[in-house]
Please model this.
Amino acid sequence: MPLPTVAIVGRPNVGKSTLFNRLVGKKLALVDDRPGVTRDRREGEAELFGLEFRIIDTAGYEDEDPQTLPGRMRKQTEAAVREADVALFLFDSREGITSLDEEIGRWLRVSKTPVVVVGNKAEARSGQAGVLDAYRLGLGDPVAISAEHGEGIAGLFEALLPLLEREGADEPEIEDEEPDSGAPLKLAIIGRPNAGKSTLVNRMVGEERLITGPEAGITRDSISIDWEWQGRPVKIVDTAGLRKRSKVTDKLEKLSSADARRAIDMAEVVVLLLDATRGLEAQDLRIAEQVIDEGRALLIAINKWDVAENASSLFNGVKAALEEGLAQIKGIPVLTVSAKTGKGIDQLIGAAFEVREQWSRRIGTGELNRWFEAAIETNPPPAPGGKRIKLRYITQVKSRPPSFVVFGTRVSELPESYRRYLLNSMRRELGLGPVPLRMTLRSPKNPFDQSR
Model:
Protein backbone atom coordinates (compact mmCIF):
# COMPACT_ATOMS: atom_id res chain seq x y z
CA MET A 1 0.00 0.00 0.00
CA PRO A 2 1.49 3.39 -0.98
CA LEU A 3 2.34 5.86 1.74
CA PRO A 4 -0.08 8.74 2.37
CA THR A 5 1.09 12.11 1.08
CA VAL A 6 1.50 15.41 2.95
CA ALA A 7 2.20 18.68 1.09
CA ILE A 8 3.75 21.70 2.84
CA VAL A 9 2.37 24.98 1.51
CA GLY A 10 2.70 28.62 2.46
CA ARG A 11 4.05 31.95 1.33
CA PRO A 12 7.81 32.36 0.73
CA ASN A 13 10.31 32.19 3.57
CA VAL A 14 8.10 30.78 6.32
CA GLY A 15 10.32 27.70 6.81
CA LYS A 16 8.75 25.08 4.55
CA SER A 17 12.08 23.56 3.50
CA THR A 18 13.34 23.59 7.08
CA LEU A 19 10.28 21.61 8.16
CA PHE A 20 10.72 19.28 5.17
CA ASN A 21 14.31 18.56 6.22
CA ARG A 22 13.21 18.05 9.82
CA LEU A 23 10.59 15.45 8.83
CA VAL A 24 12.79 13.47 6.41
CA GLY A 25 15.72 13.58 8.83
CA LYS A 26 18.15 14.82 6.19
CA LYS A 27 19.14 18.14 4.67
CA LEU A 28 17.68 17.33 1.27
CA ALA A 29 16.12 20.72 0.56
CA LEU A 30 18.18 23.87 0.22
CA VAL A 31 17.53 26.35 3.02
CA ASP A 32 18.40 30.04 2.94
CA ASP A 33 17.11 33.26 4.47
CA ARG A 34 16.29 34.54 0.99
CA PRO A 35 12.73 33.82 -0.21
CA GLY A 36 12.07 31.75 -3.31
CA VAL A 37 14.91 29.24 -2.95
CA THR A 38 12.54 26.31 -3.58
CA ARG A 39 11.04 26.20 -7.06
CA ASP A 40 10.18 22.62 -7.93
CA ARG A 41 8.35 20.16 -5.74
CA ARG A 42 10.74 18.05 -3.70
CA GLU A 43 9.61 14.70 -2.30
CA GLY A 44 10.93 12.55 0.49
CA GLU A 45 9.88 9.82 2.91
CA ALA A 46 9.14 11.13 6.39
CA GLU A 47 8.64 9.46 9.76
CA LEU A 48 7.08 11.07 12.82
CA PHE A 49 6.99 8.87 15.94
CA GLY A 50 6.56 5.85 13.68
CA LEU A 51 3.92 7.49 11.45
CA GLU A 52 5.27 7.15 7.91
CA PHE A 53 4.23 9.31 4.97
CA ARG A 54 5.48 10.91 1.77
CA ILE A 55 6.26 14.61 2.22
CA ILE A 56 6.29 17.24 -0.54
CA ASP A 57 8.11 20.57 -0.17
CA THR A 58 6.54 23.19 -2.44
CA ALA A 59 7.51 26.62 -3.71
CA GLY A 60 6.34 29.70 -1.85
CA TYR A 61 2.79 30.62 -2.88
CA GLU A 62 2.76 34.02 -4.60
CA ASP A 63 -0.04 36.03 -6.25
CA GLU A 64 1.54 36.46 -9.68
CA ASP A 65 0.50 36.08 -13.32
CA PRO A 66 0.27 32.36 -14.23
CA GLN A 67 2.73 32.88 -17.12
CA THR A 68 5.49 34.22 -14.87
CA LEU A 69 7.97 32.01 -13.04
CA PRO A 70 6.26 32.58 -9.65
CA GLY A 71 2.92 31.86 -11.33
CA ARG A 72 4.17 28.58 -12.77
CA MET A 73 5.63 27.69 -9.38
CA ARG A 74 2.20 28.33 -7.85
CA LYS A 75 0.67 25.85 -10.32
CA GLN A 76 3.08 23.21 -9.06
CA THR A 77 2.02 23.96 -5.49
CA GLU A 78 -1.67 23.72 -6.39
CA ALA A 79 -1.06 20.37 -8.11
CA ALA A 80 0.78 19.07 -5.04
CA VAL A 81 -2.17 19.96 -2.80
CA ARG A 82 -4.67 18.27 -5.14
CA GLU A 83 -2.67 15.05 -5.02
CA ALA A 84 -2.00 15.15 -1.27
CA ASP A 85 -3.94 13.47 1.53
CA VAL A 86 -3.18 16.40 3.87
CA ALA A 87 -1.87 19.94 3.37
CA LEU A 88 0.29 21.57 6.04
CA PHE A 89 -0.39 25.31 5.78
CA LEU A 90 2.74 26.89 7.24
CA PHE A 91 2.88 30.53 8.33
CA ASP A 92 5.36 32.64 10.27
CA SER A 93 3.91 32.95 13.78
CA ARG A 94 6.17 35.90 14.61
CA GLU A 95 4.68 37.92 11.77
CA GLY A 96 1.12 36.70 12.27
CA ILE A 97 -1.39 36.25 9.46
CA THR A 98 -0.60 38.44 6.45
CA SER A 99 -2.87 39.32 3.54
CA LEU A 100 -1.17 36.65 1.42
CA ASP A 101 -1.76 34.09 4.20
CA GLU A 102 -5.44 35.05 4.12
CA GLU A 103 -5.52 34.49 0.35
CA ILE A 104 -3.89 31.07 0.75
CA GLY A 105 -6.41 30.28 3.48
CA ARG A 106 -9.33 31.13 1.19
CA TRP A 107 -7.90 28.85 -1.52
CA LEU A 108 -7.37 25.97 0.93
CA ARG A 109 -10.86 26.30 2.41
CA VAL A 110 -12.46 25.47 -0.94
CA SER A 111 -10.02 22.66 -1.75
CA LYS A 112 -10.99 19.06 -0.97
CA THR A 113 -7.71 18.34 0.81
CA PRO A 114 -7.77 18.35 4.65
CA VAL A 115 -5.63 21.17 6.08
CA VAL A 116 -3.52 21.46 9.23
CA VAL A 117 -2.53 25.04 10.07
CA VAL A 118 1.01 25.24 11.46
CA GLY A 119 2.57 28.31 13.04
CA ASN A 120 6.34 28.07 12.54
CA LYS A 121 9.12 29.95 14.37
CA ALA A 122 7.16 29.71 17.65
CA GLU A 123 10.15 28.82 19.80
CA ALA A 124 10.09 30.06 23.39
CA ARG A 125 6.51 31.38 23.01
CA SER A 126 7.80 34.10 20.67
CA GLY A 127 4.93 33.58 18.24
CA GLN A 128 2.03 33.00 20.63
CA ALA A 129 0.06 36.05 19.45
CA GLY A 130 0.54 35.04 15.81
CA VAL A 131 -0.67 31.50 16.53
CA LEU A 132 -3.82 32.86 18.15
CA ASP A 133 -4.31 35.14 15.12
CA ALA A 134 -4.50 32.03 12.89
CA TYR A 135 -7.90 31.07 14.26
CA ARG A 136 -9.47 33.68 11.99
CA LEU A 137 -8.48 31.61 8.96
CA GLY A 138 -11.31 29.24 9.82
CA LEU A 139 -9.19 26.14 9.26
CA GLY A 140 -9.25 24.67 12.75
CA ASP A 141 -6.82 24.70 15.66
CA PRO A 142 -3.32 25.86 14.72
CA VAL A 143 -0.27 23.87 15.81
CA ALA A 144 2.70 25.85 17.15
CA ILE A 145 6.14 24.51 16.17
CA SER A 146 9.73 25.48 15.59
CA ALA A 147 10.97 23.56 12.55
CA GLU A 148 14.52 24.72 13.19
CA HIS A 149 14.65 23.59 16.83
CA GLY A 150 12.25 20.65 16.66
CA GLU A 151 9.76 22.07 19.16
CA GLY A 152 6.06 21.16 18.96
CA ILE A 153 6.60 18.09 16.77
CA ALA A 154 4.47 15.95 19.13
CA GLY A 155 1.56 18.34 18.54
CA LEU A 156 2.06 18.04 14.78
CA PHE A 157 1.98 14.26 15.11
CA GLU A 158 -1.31 14.44 17.01
CA ALA A 159 -2.86 16.62 14.30
CA LEU A 160 -1.68 14.41 11.42
CA LEU A 161 -2.42 11.00 12.91
CA PRO A 162 -6.24 10.93 12.50
CA LEU A 163 -5.92 12.34 8.96
CA LEU A 164 -3.30 9.85 7.78
CA GLU A 165 -4.66 6.67 9.36
CA ARG A 166 -5.80 4.46 6.51
CA GLU A 167 -9.38 3.27 6.19
CA GLY A 168 -9.71 0.07 8.16
CA ALA A 169 -7.25 1.15 10.84
CA ASP A 170 -9.59 -0.36 13.42
CA GLU A 171 -8.98 -3.81 11.95
CA PRO A 172 -6.47 -6.07 13.74
CA GLU A 173 -4.03 -6.02 10.83
CA ILE A 174 -2.77 -3.46 8.34
CA GLU A 175 -1.63 -4.96 5.07
CA ASP A 176 1.47 -2.85 4.54
CA GLU A 177 2.81 -3.69 8.01
CA GLU A 178 1.97 -7.38 8.03
CA PRO A 179 4.46 -9.76 6.48
CA ASP A 180 3.38 -10.75 2.99
CA SER A 181 2.05 -14.31 3.04
CA GLY A 182 4.65 -15.13 0.41
CA ALA A 183 7.52 -13.30 2.08
CA PRO A 184 10.19 -15.52 3.63
CA LEU A 185 10.55 -15.77 7.39
CA LYS A 186 13.87 -14.13 8.25
CA LEU A 187 15.30 -16.45 10.89
CA ALA A 188 18.71 -16.00 12.55
CA ILE A 189 20.31 -18.83 14.54
CA ILE A 190 22.63 -17.47 17.23
CA GLY A 191 24.36 -18.70 20.36
CA ARG A 192 27.67 -19.40 21.99
CA PRO A 193 30.40 -21.27 20.07
CA ASN A 194 29.85 -25.00 19.54
CA ALA A 195 26.16 -24.96 20.47
CA GLY A 196 25.40 -26.80 17.22
CA LYS A 197 24.06 -23.94 15.10
CA SER A 198 25.54 -25.09 11.78
CA THR A 199 24.57 -28.71 12.45
CA LEU A 200 20.99 -27.59 13.10
CA VAL A 201 20.86 -25.59 9.86
CA ASN A 202 22.24 -28.55 7.91
CA ARG A 203 19.54 -30.77 9.39
CA MET A 204 16.87 -28.21 8.47
CA VAL A 205 17.90 -27.90 4.83
CA GLY A 206 18.67 -31.62 4.46
CA GLU A 207 22.25 -31.31 3.22
CA GLU A 208 25.74 -30.58 4.49
CA ARG A 209 25.47 -26.98 3.47
CA LEU A 210 27.73 -25.70 6.27
CA ILE A 211 31.01 -26.96 7.63
CA THR A 212 30.64 -28.53 11.06
CA GLY A 213 32.96 -30.21 13.53
CA PRO A 214 33.92 -30.50 17.19
CA GLU A 215 36.08 -27.39 17.06
CA ALA A 216 34.47 -24.20 18.38
CA GLY A 217 34.33 -21.19 16.08
CA ILE A 218 34.30 -22.88 12.68
CA THR A 219 31.67 -20.48 11.36
CA ARG A 220 33.04 -16.99 10.78
CA ASP A 221 30.72 -15.32 8.28
CA SER A 222 26.97 -15.11 8.71
CA ILE A 223 25.67 -17.46 6.02
CA SER A 224 22.20 -16.92 4.54
CA ILE A 225 20.35 -19.92 3.11
CA ASP A 226 16.97 -19.97 1.36
CA TRP A 227 14.81 -22.88 2.48
CA GLU A 228 11.20 -23.97 2.34
CA TRP A 229 9.25 -25.44 5.27
CA GLN A 230 5.87 -27.01 4.54
CA GLY A 231 5.56 -24.85 1.43
CA ARG A 232 6.49 -21.62 3.24
CA PRO A 233 9.75 -19.82 2.41
CA VAL A 234 12.35 -19.29 5.13
CA LYS A 235 15.63 -17.40 4.93
CA ILE A 236 17.93 -18.93 7.55
CA VAL A 237 21.05 -17.12 8.71
CA ASP A 238 23.71 -19.16 10.50
CA THR A 239 26.03 -16.99 12.59
CA ALA A 240 29.37 -17.17 14.31
CA GLY A 241 29.40 -18.10 17.98
CA LEU A 242 29.13 -15.13 20.33
CA ARG A 243 31.53 -15.13 23.23
CA LYS A 244 31.81 -12.62 26.05
CA ARG A 245 33.23 -9.41 24.58
CA SER A 246 36.13 -9.29 27.03
CA LYS A 247 37.32 -12.68 25.75
CA VAL A 248 37.26 -11.62 22.09
CA THR A 249 40.74 -10.32 21.26
CA ASP A 250 41.37 -11.71 17.79
CA LYS A 251 40.52 -9.23 15.03
CA LEU A 252 38.85 -11.87 12.86
CA GLU A 253 36.64 -13.02 15.74
CA LYS A 254 35.69 -9.41 16.41
CA LEU A 255 34.60 -9.06 12.79
CA SER A 256 32.66 -12.34 12.99
CA SER A 257 30.90 -11.19 16.16
CA ALA A 258 30.00 -7.88 14.54
CA ASP A 259 28.64 -9.78 11.52
CA ALA A 260 26.50 -11.95 13.81
CA ARG A 261 25.09 -8.87 15.49
CA ARG A 262 24.22 -7.42 12.10
CA ALA A 263 22.36 -10.66 11.33
CA ILE A 264 20.27 -10.06 14.47
CA ASP A 265 19.46 -6.57 13.20
CA MET A 266 18.23 -7.96 9.86
CA ALA A 267 16.20 -10.86 11.32
CA GLU A 268 12.51 -11.00 12.18
CA VAL A 269 12.82 -13.94 14.57
CA VAL A 270 16.00 -14.97 16.39
CA VAL A 271 16.58 -18.48 17.77
CA LEU A 272 19.04 -18.54 20.67
CA LEU A 273 20.47 -22.04 20.65
CA LEU A 274 21.61 -23.52 23.98
CA ASP A 275 23.74 -26.61 24.55
CA ALA A 276 21.85 -29.11 26.70
CA THR A 277 25.15 -30.40 28.07
CA ARG A 278 25.99 -26.94 29.42
CA GLY A 279 22.60 -25.41 30.21
CA LEU A 280 21.91 -21.67 30.39
CA GLU A 281 24.93 -19.49 31.13
CA ALA A 282 25.34 -15.76 31.80
CA GLN A 283 26.53 -15.16 28.21
CA ASP A 284 23.27 -16.64 26.90
CA LEU A 285 21.30 -14.11 28.93
CA ARG A 286 23.46 -11.28 27.59
CA ILE A 287 22.80 -12.45 24.01
CA ALA A 288 19.07 -12.69 24.72
CA GLU A 289 19.02 -9.17 26.15
CA GLN A 290 20.70 -7.86 23.00
CA VAL A 291 18.05 -9.51 20.81
CA ILE A 292 15.27 -7.97 22.89
CA ASP A 293 16.96 -4.56 22.90
CA GLU A 294 17.08 -4.72 19.09
CA GLY A 295 13.33 -5.35 19.09
CA ARG A 296 13.48 -8.81 17.54
CA ALA A 297 11.18 -11.73 18.40
CA LEU A 298 13.10 -14.34 20.42
CA LEU A 299 12.85 -18.12 20.78
CA ILE A 300 15.03 -20.29 23.02
CA ALA A 301 15.95 -23.73 21.65
CA ILE A 302 17.84 -26.30 23.75
CA ASN A 303 19.92 -28.41 21.39
CA LYS A 304 21.43 -31.89 21.94
CA TRP A 305 18.25 -32.89 23.75
CA ASP A 306 18.83 -36.49 22.71
CA VAL A 307 21.83 -36.67 25.06
CA ALA A 308 20.53 -34.42 27.84
CA GLU A 309 20.82 -35.70 31.40
CA ASN A 310 18.05 -34.98 33.91
CA ALA A 311 16.04 -33.47 31.06
CA SER A 312 13.03 -32.36 33.10
CA SER A 313 15.18 -30.62 35.70
CA LEU A 314 17.26 -28.96 32.98
CA PHE A 315 14.18 -27.66 31.14
CA ASN A 316 12.58 -26.24 34.29
CA GLY A 317 15.89 -24.71 35.34
CA VAL A 318 16.27 -22.91 32.01
CA LYS A 319 12.68 -21.60 32.21
CA ALA A 320 13.21 -20.32 35.76
CA ALA A 321 16.53 -18.66 34.88
CA LEU A 322 14.91 -16.89 31.91
CA GLU A 323 12.03 -15.63 34.07
CA GLU A 324 14.51 -14.19 36.54
CA GLY A 325 17.15 -12.96 34.12
CA LEU A 326 14.83 -11.45 31.47
CA ALA A 327 12.37 -9.59 33.64
CA GLN A 328 11.31 -7.30 30.76
CA ILE A 329 9.58 -10.16 28.88
CA LYS A 330 7.92 -13.11 30.56
CA GLY A 331 7.05 -16.37 28.90
CA ILE A 332 9.61 -16.49 26.07
CA PRO A 333 9.02 -19.86 24.33
CA VAL A 334 11.54 -22.57 25.21
CA LEU A 335 11.70 -25.56 22.86
CA THR A 336 13.86 -28.65 22.69
CA VAL A 337 15.56 -29.89 19.52
CA SER A 338 18.14 -32.32 18.34
CA ALA A 339 20.24 -31.19 15.41
CA LYS A 340 21.56 -34.74 15.17
CA THR A 341 18.19 -36.49 14.80
CA GLY A 342 16.00 -33.61 13.59
CA LYS A 343 13.52 -34.03 16.43
CA GLY A 344 11.71 -30.82 17.40
CA ILE A 345 12.61 -28.84 14.27
CA ASP A 346 9.02 -28.69 12.96
CA GLN A 347 7.81 -27.38 16.31
CA LEU A 348 10.60 -24.79 16.34
CA ILE A 349 9.80 -23.41 12.86
CA GLY A 350 6.07 -23.44 13.58
CA ALA A 351 6.70 -21.41 16.74
CA ALA A 352 8.87 -18.99 14.75
CA PHE A 353 6.04 -18.27 12.30
CA GLU A 354 3.62 -17.83 15.19
CA VAL A 355 5.83 -15.41 17.09
CA ARG A 356 6.49 -13.42 13.89
CA GLU A 357 2.73 -12.97 13.56
CA GLN A 358 2.57 -11.56 17.11
CA TRP A 359 5.62 -9.37 16.45
CA SER A 360 3.94 -7.98 13.33
CA ARG A 361 0.54 -7.39 14.93
CA ARG A 362 -1.37 -4.12 14.55
CA ILE A 363 -4.05 -3.42 17.16
CA GLY A 364 -7.09 -1.43 16.04
CA THR A 365 -7.39 2.02 17.62
CA GLY A 366 -10.79 1.28 19.17
CA GLU A 367 -9.73 -2.04 20.70
CA LEU A 368 -6.48 -0.52 21.94
CA ASN A 369 -8.13 2.38 23.75
CA ARG A 370 -10.86 0.18 25.24
CA TRP A 371 -8.10 -1.93 26.77
CA PHE A 372 -6.26 1.24 27.85
CA GLU A 373 -9.27 2.68 29.68
CA ALA A 374 -9.95 -0.64 31.42
CA ALA A 375 -6.31 -1.02 32.48
CA ILE A 376 -6.26 2.50 33.96
CA GLU A 377 -9.59 1.96 35.73
CA THR A 378 -8.36 -1.32 37.22
CA ASN A 379 -5.08 0.17 38.39
CA PRO A 380 -5.02 4.01 38.23
CA PRO A 381 -1.66 5.79 37.83
CA PRO A 382 -0.06 7.00 41.09
CA ALA A 383 -0.27 10.62 42.26
CA PRO A 384 3.24 11.67 43.29
CA GLY A 385 3.12 14.65 45.62
CA GLY A 386 -0.67 14.44 45.61
CA LYS A 387 -0.87 15.50 41.94
CA ARG A 388 -2.54 13.14 39.50
CA ILE A 389 -0.79 11.74 36.47
CA LYS A 390 -3.46 11.79 33.78
CA LEU A 391 -3.11 9.34 30.88
CA ARG A 392 -5.40 10.44 28.04
CA TYR A 393 -5.06 7.97 25.18
CA ILE A 394 -2.74 5.54 23.41
CA THR A 395 -2.01 4.90 19.75
CA GLN A 396 0.05 2.31 17.93
CA VAL A 397 2.53 4.02 15.66
CA LYS A 398 4.11 0.94 14.07
CA SER A 399 4.54 -2.81 14.28
CA ARG A 400 7.55 -5.12 13.93
CA PRO A 401 7.97 -4.69 16.90
CA PRO A 402 4.63 -3.27 18.12
CA SER A 403 5.31 0.34 19.18
CA PHE A 404 2.94 2.65 21.03
CA VAL A 405 2.75 6.27 22.15
CA VAL A 406 0.86 7.18 25.34
CA PHE A 407 -0.26 10.80 25.67
CA GLY A 408 -1.00 12.41 29.00
CA THR A 409 0.04 15.02 31.54
CA ARG A 410 3.02 14.76 33.90
CA VAL A 411 4.02 11.49 32.21
CA SER A 412 7.68 12.14 33.04
CA GLU A 413 6.80 11.26 36.64
CA LEU A 414 5.16 7.93 35.78
CA PRO A 415 7.08 5.14 37.57
CA GLU A 416 8.74 2.45 35.51
CA SER A 417 6.72 -0.12 37.46
CA TYR A 418 3.47 1.33 36.07
CA ARG A 419 4.86 1.29 32.54
CA ARG A 420 5.72 -2.40 33.01
CA TYR A 421 2.17 -2.97 34.29
CA LEU A 422 0.75 -1.53 31.07
CA LEU A 423 3.08 -3.59 28.86
CA ASN A 424 2.37 -6.84 30.70
CA SER A 425 -1.38 -6.18 30.62
CA MET A 426 -1.12 -5.45 26.89
CA ARG A 427 0.65 -8.74 26.22
CA ARG A 428 -1.91 -10.65 28.26
CA GLU A 429 -5.15 -8.94 27.22
CA LEU A 430 -4.38 -8.12 23.58
CA GLY A 431 -2.68 -11.37 22.61
CA LEU A 432 0.69 -9.82 21.80
CA GLY A 433 2.57 -12.59 23.55
CA PRO A 434 6.23 -12.58 24.62
CA VAL A 435 7.55 -10.17 21.99
CA PRO A 436 9.41 -6.89 22.56
CA LEU A 437 7.07 -3.91 22.86
CA ARG A 438 7.96 -0.23 22.62
CA MET A 439 6.07 2.36 24.67
CA THR A 440 6.87 6.08 24.49
CA LEU A 441 5.29 8.57 26.88
CA ARG A 442 4.42 11.99 25.48
CA SER A 443 3.12 15.15 27.11
CA PRO A 444 1.98 17.40 24.23
CA LYS A 445 3.07 21.00 24.60
CA ASN A 446 0.29 23.57 24.66
CA PRO A 447 1.64 27.02 23.75
CA PHE A 448 -1.44 28.67 25.30
CA ASP A 449 -1.16 26.94 28.69
CA GLN A 450 0.43 29.48 31.04
CA SER A 451 0.76 26.90 33.80
CA ARG A 452 3.43 24.91 32.00
Notes: Residues 5-164 form a domain with the Rossmann fold fold (CATH 3.40.50.300). The chain is about 35% helix and 20% strand. The longest helix spans residues 251-266. The chain has three domains: 5-164, 185-359, 365-442.
